[in-house]
Write a structure and sequence with these properties.
Helix content is about 45%, strand content about 15%. The strands form three sheets. A seven-stranded mixed beta sheet has the order 3-2-1-4-7-6-5, sandwiched between helices. A seven-stranded parallel beta sheet has the order 14-13-12-15-16-17-18, with helices on both faces. The chain is an alpha/beta fold. It folds into four domains: about 5-220, Class II aldolase/adducin N-terminal domain (L-fuculose-1-phosphate Aldolase), CATH 3.40.225; about 240-400, L-fuculose-1-phosphate Aldolase; about 410-585 and about 620-645, 3-Layer(aba) Sandwich (Rossmann fold), CATH 3.40.50; about 590-620. The structure holds zinc ion (ZN). The site of zinc ion (ZN) has 7 residues, from loops.
């Protein structure tokens, strides 16, 4: 591990807080030190307040900020004098502690300071850095971990036995530090938790962290516990999409809300999941409480999720009979599932959460395997994990029940998603919190949006093998399917029946009808396993109720698709799947309507372009977004009791009313 300190960058920092931001970001940029909002740092600065008094202020990382991207407002200023008085108390509950942190901050709008704020305050150095460095955490989770740490660091660190983060840990640190610190002390190692470094200069504190962690890495290398051997495993069997969707359904049932499931079948992960000792090494608990807080659950093994849920029940019964009541407040669904065939499946309310859980567990796998190479993985005992899972502060977070977006945890598939109505549908669904798989012939779909809740795949919907593969990819990424928006379609140039070309007729039928029939058939098993009931929206056309001359192939294909949807409503109602159709007309902000085409069509009717665009009863323009919002609403609670409906979105048409 190398220091990333750069003199020129550091010189640009104008004050002590800016330097704190700078070295915090250096720590945050290294996933071997800090993962997703983990770790925390602080600086103590003397300030003059509004009434002219000098005060020592602790600037400590505020909740909700990530060290990798933190800025000055991410540090919460809290009065040192009060924090030091709190550290003298015999007891302080977590909620009292949070209240004190909140009421003693000097900027009202600052975030709540880290739960480790009092701990930072009691260390008598200007800069304090704290990480859950993988190498240190690995060694503290080995048999004889404390002796090993002593062997590596001698009297340069004070060793703190495991205590749950919060007030008790701050007190323990204050006592141990007072009793054991010497002139040689440069840091603290917290067993089964992480490491602190400190100094009066930002650079010294940061580089001390790097050096201490480097020594832990060297120790593992000396014990041949660094390179992780991997057997040549590949995912040889095709993905059983229905099995994964069923797992997601059962997890969502247990969680009481739709959850996303994200798969990793990389050789590294499969190698871990196929270890003979998986049962022992994966069921012990997390490497550090920082990880359990966000994973919230132990990894579970096997294939039958009801056995996972039952195992949790047993676990609660044995380890915390008194906490039964509290258990009902939390969902019993696992967050990490390991399977020799499926690999690692991580669960989250959003794709971001599932992704964070995956990152954390990938690091946990590395830590466990290195510990096994060094000696044996020996994690925190079950009762201590329970303590963290049911930590008062965690409970408070859960109780708040921040209002989830309407479609959180749901997955939609949109065809023809790269432009026009399809793209607008993607945006409407994402805005409601859904994860979206977008298919399009145009490969720009793959880079259309860079966000974890969108997967863009190049796919010809008339190619059944390609569609199957796309569904597989969607299931790997999000775990299943809740909504299908059938938008892809084609509109050939006008042609009367007398001149209609067979080839064109077949092509239009192939795209607008055959491909959608195959898509409905292939999505059905997934929609049936949708945690919130399956929803299908057909983007129809005004041509269904009011066909026009010269559009035989298009109108006939859309009318046939309309009939197909009506049959599906009959056949799928028992599975809770609803299917509704919307009939747009004159949506001109799509690819096929160039300025020229628009001008020529308007001229054909002896109208201005504006008149042509608004030639409907309401005299209004219809945009792709108007159509998309209706499509999204049809998947939402407003249409929860409606199936087989056909709703126009055309400004009113005198041939349809
Ligand atoms: Zn920590």
């Amino acid at each position: 591990m190398k220091s990333l300190w750069n003199e020129a960058d550091a010189a640009r920092c104008e004050d002590e807080l800016q330097l704190r931001v700078y070295t915090s970001r250096l720590l945050g940029s290294n996933p071997e030190l800090v993962l997703h909002g983990g770790g925390n740092t602080s600086v103590k600065i003397r300030k003059t307040n509004l009434v002219g008094e000098e005060e020592d202020i602790l600037y400590v990382k505020g909740s909700g900020w990530d060290l990798a991207t933190i800025e000055a407002p991410g540090f919460t200023p809290i009065r040192m004098a009060h924090l030091l008085k709190l550290a003298e108390l015999e007891t302080l509950s977590d909620s009292q502690m949070v209240n004190e942190l909140k009421t003693q901050q000097t900027v009202a709008s600052a975030p709540t300071g880290s739960v480790e704020a009092i701990l930072h305050a009691v260390l008598p150095f200007k800069y304090v850095d704290h990480t859950h460095a993988n190498a240190v955490v690995t060694i503290t989770n080995l048999p004889g971990g404390e002796e090993r740490i002593r062997e590596i660091y001698g009297d340069e660190v004070v060793i703190i036995p495991y205590v749950m983060p919060g007030f008790d840990l701050a007190r323990m640190v204050a006592q141990c530090y007072a009793a054991e610190a010497s002139a040689n002390t440069r840091g603290l190692v917290l067993m089964n938790h992480g490491i602190f470094s400190f100094a009066d200069a930002a650079r010294d504190s940061y580089e001390c962290m790097i050096e201490l962690v480097e020594r832990a890495e060297q120790y593992l290398k000396r014990h041949n516990a660094w390179e992780i051997p991997r057997s040549g495993v590949e995912s040889d069997k095709p993905l059983a999409v229905e099995q994964v969707a069923r797992l997601r359904w059962e997890i969502s049932q247990a969680a009481g809300a739709p959850m996303l499931l994200s798969m990793d079948r990389s050789p590294e992960v499969l190698s871990f999941c196929r270890r003979d000792d998986l049962d022992r090494i994966s069921q012990q608990g997390p490497a550090t409480p920082d990880h359990v807080i966000r994973t919230k659950r132990l990894p579970m093994l096997g294939r039958d999720v009801s056995s996972y849920v039952k195992a949790y029940g047993d676990y609660f019964a044995v380890n915390a009979p008194h906490a039964r009541q509290e258990v009902t407040m939390l969902d019993p669904a696992p967050r990490v599932i390991l399977d020799p065939e499926l690999g690692m499946l991580t669960v989250g309310r959003s794709s971001k959460e599932a992704g964070i859980n995956a990152d954390i567990y990938r690091h946990t796998m590395q830590i466990i395997q290195r510990a096994e190479l060094a000696d044996a993985w020996t994690a925190l005992s079950a009762d201590k994990i329970f303590e963290v899972e049911y930590w008062e502060l965690e409970q408070a977070k859960l109780r708040k029940g921040d209002s989830a977006p309407e479609m959180q945890g749901e997955v939609a598939l949109v065809t023809g998603a790269a432009s026009g109505i399809g793209r607008a549908c993607v945006e409407s669904l994402l805005a409601r919190g859904a994860a979206v798989v977008g298919l399009d012939l145009d490969d720009s779909i793959e880079i259309m949006l860079e966000r974890s809740d969108f997967l863009g795949l190049t796919c010809d919907v008339t190619d059944q093998a390609a569609v199957k593969l796309a569904l597989e990819n969607g299931v790997q990424r999000f775990g299943g399917l809740n909504m299908l928006i059938m938008n892809a379609g084609m509109f050939p140039g006008g042609s009367r029946i007398a001149e209609l070309d067979d080839e064109i007729w077949r092509k239009v039928m192939g795209v607008n009808l055959d491909a959608n029939m195959a898509l409905m058939r292939d999505c059905y098993p997934l929609l049936k396993l949708s945690p919130n009931s399956g929803k299908v929206v057909v983007i129809g056309s005004k041509n269904v109720p009011a066909p026009g001359p010269g559009a035989a192939a298009y109108s006939a294909s859309k009318a046939a698709l309309n009939q197909l949807a009506r049959i599906a409503a009959l056949e799928w109602a028992a599975d809770g799947i609803r299917i509704n159709t919307l009939h747009p007309d004159a949506v001109f902000d799509t690819g096929i309507w160039s300025e020229e085409v628009l001008a020529s069509r308007a001229a054909h009717y002896a109208m201005t372009v504006q008149e042509y665009k608004t030639k409907n009863l309401l005299g209004t323009e219809i945009s792709s977004m108007d159509v998309a919002e209706l499509a999204a609403a049809m998947c939402g609670p407003l249409f929860a009791k409606t199936t087989a409906a056909q709703v126009p979105v055309d400004g009113g048409n005198d041939r349809v009313v």
